[in-house]
Amino acid sequence: MDLHLTNKKALVTGSTTGIGFAIASFLAQERAAVVVNGRSQGRVEEAVRRMKRENKDAQVTGVAADLGTKAGVDLLTKTVPTLDILVNNLGIYEAKPFTDISDEDWLRFFEVNVLSGVRLSRFYLPAMLQRNWGRVVFISSESGVNIPVEMVHYGVTKTAQIALAYLALTASDLWPGRGWNFVFGEANLRQRTGVWSIYRNGDPGDDFTLCLRRTLGTASHELCHVLTLHHCTAFRCLMNGSNHQQERDQRPLHPCPVCLRKLCWNLRAEAVPYLMKLNTFCQQNRLDPESGWYERALEALAGGNE
Ligand SMILES: NC(=O)c1ccc[n+]([C@@H]2O[C@H](COP(=O)([O-])OP(=O)(O)OC[C@H]3O[C@@H](n4cnc5c(N)ncnc54)[C@H](OP(=O)(O)O)[C@@H]3O)[C@@H](O)[C@H]2O)c1
Ligand SMILES: [Zn+2]
Ligand SMILES: [Zn+2]
User: Fold this and answer.
1) In a domain, 288, yes or no
2) Which residue's CA lies nearest to atom 47 of ligand 1?
3) pTM, whole model, 2 decimals?
């Protein structure tokens, strides 16, 4: 596999052993420059040695820092000031009856499992956005969806991680290629995820507008699912369900008045400025039927008769 990660700088938190070490090794195989982390210098050095033993070409360094503390995060961010890939893998767990879990336990779990990722993401994210490339991954757990009775505090911190990683957009395509029965878009509100494939929308060199229209259609339809909208049966609408590309191509790009209202409520947006922005975008990108619809909607709203 080539994930095009050559020389990308990647940090995996809590990676002297376990899942973290496995992720770090995989990234090193993909030729990323990997930073491993654990609390003690000895174990970090041992992990670096082990990775180099297993893969002599691995670009790997290590930083010993307790990421359950602000001081530890500060030390790490000083040593590694920029990153392309941040994998918030660090997570602690222990079995304890709910009635025995003290305030100190709750706070420690929150600080190690949630705040470590929050602090690191807050530090590294702005530069990733500025460079227009970056990945922040949280390793949560099935325990965040189905809280284990024997470690409620662990489960709650894992739910918090899922809540934090709300939505991400990437142009990297997940569709492996023709012959694969991959949905062209799917989203789930409860799991807070949405994926869609751009690659299968056709060749932009042949028909750019068609590819753009398809991408906008699927991406905004799936995003609306993440923003709590269900399939619409009220009108012809972006949120009508579809089963194949041909059917999808016949769906409009705009939401119907019912879905627009829900969307504006969810985004806390005012309908008129929102529609004006969409109209400008459609005009700039030669999406003529769509811009015609936005103009009629804006006229109707200005007249106050719809
Ligand atoms: N194991 C599972 O079955 C499972 C299932 C679902 C999700 N997960 C999640 O996957 C992640 C990794 O789990 P794992 O089982 O692989 O963990 P693990 O084997 O217990 O590994 C823990 C790693 O974290 C490091 N670490 C612990 N406290 C640290 C701290 N305060 N600062 C920096 N590093 C620290 C440890 O390094 P040192 O000891 O060298 O400091 C070690 O490298 C966790 O987020 C966990 O919730 C695990
Ligand atoms: Zn749908
Ligand atoms: Zn609708």
Assistant:
1) no
2) 91
3) 0.80
